[in-house]
Amino acid sequence: MAQAVKFLSVKEVAVTMHVSVATIWRYAERGTLPEPVRIDGHTWWIEAEVLAVIEKKMAIRQTHVNASILPVPTSKTKNNRFRVHLDRSGLK
Asked: What is the pTM of this model?
């Protein structure tokens, strides 16, 4: 038997992602969220696709968090103070 697909309204997606409805529309416009399904004048997102986006973002975040645990290169200045070099190239 086929798995039932659960649809979420824009309000439900906003609650799931803890953002405003306006932010959901911005995410949809820029492609952060998958393309919604439009049925008879109503817009719906497939719950599994929304959750997959959240899980992907969490996995990327976890990769950055793990990378930030690595030792930070330092150097001494002429007055014996340490300068810490932060690499923020992968953070957004």
From this structure: 0.65
